[in-house]
Amino acid sequence: MNTALEAVDLKRSYQLEGLSVEALRGVSLRIEPGEFVAIIGPSGSGKSTLMHLLGCLDRPTSGALRVNGVEMSGLSDTSLAELRNRTIGFVFQSFHLLGRTSALDNVALPLVYRGTGKAERRARARRALEAVGLGHRLDHRPSQMSGGEQQRVAIARALVGEPSVLLADEPTGNLDTRNGDEVMAILDRLNAESGVAIVLVTHEPEVAAHARRQIHVRDGLIELDTALGDGGGRSGEAGGSEVGPVDPRGPDEGELR
What are the boundaries of the region Disordered (predicted)? Predict the structure, then answer.
């Protein structure tokens, strides 16, 4: 079985007002199928930059990234988008749901890109919503739901395509404690039952504690990878400025009908 994600000496730099900023400076790590990994660090440590590279939302300045054994560097933007759609699910802090669209059609969105027929994508979206306890909220719009329910819709959307990897960027950041605990309980259960690998970015130690492996990032370094026992083994440096979340909303709401 292929490694779910493998990064080898990933580097990412940006030009900001004429200055070169190194956001990642040589990160290497492996994430196996079914792992539950937390990437933890303060704001500005580079953890979200790393997340976006692992999710193929951005390309590294140098280094190699493999998803299920497939090398990303040689793929066109179209091929990369297709592989991302079929392999990786995303959950963001701000939900990124279409406001005037039902939960069912929000969840079906990734299947629109695949050309899945309407009947099949709605059936799969229904099952995904039932899996996160929202089978009774299929026709509700985001404005009719609590923050915790909206995040559960986002989780269902991430899972509807049956990805091998789920990337969650601060998934409890906009939630109160009770709703945050409920979301983490769902992620715990889905990881245990479906075997999907989960990579969670957070600055909250109590959220990271749900993961069986933690990668600590600070001041441009991976300080600690609990799979290794220290920060000096497989992983190199990481850090710098972070990149804001990418809006995955895609087509106009009318295209979902």
Answer: 226-257
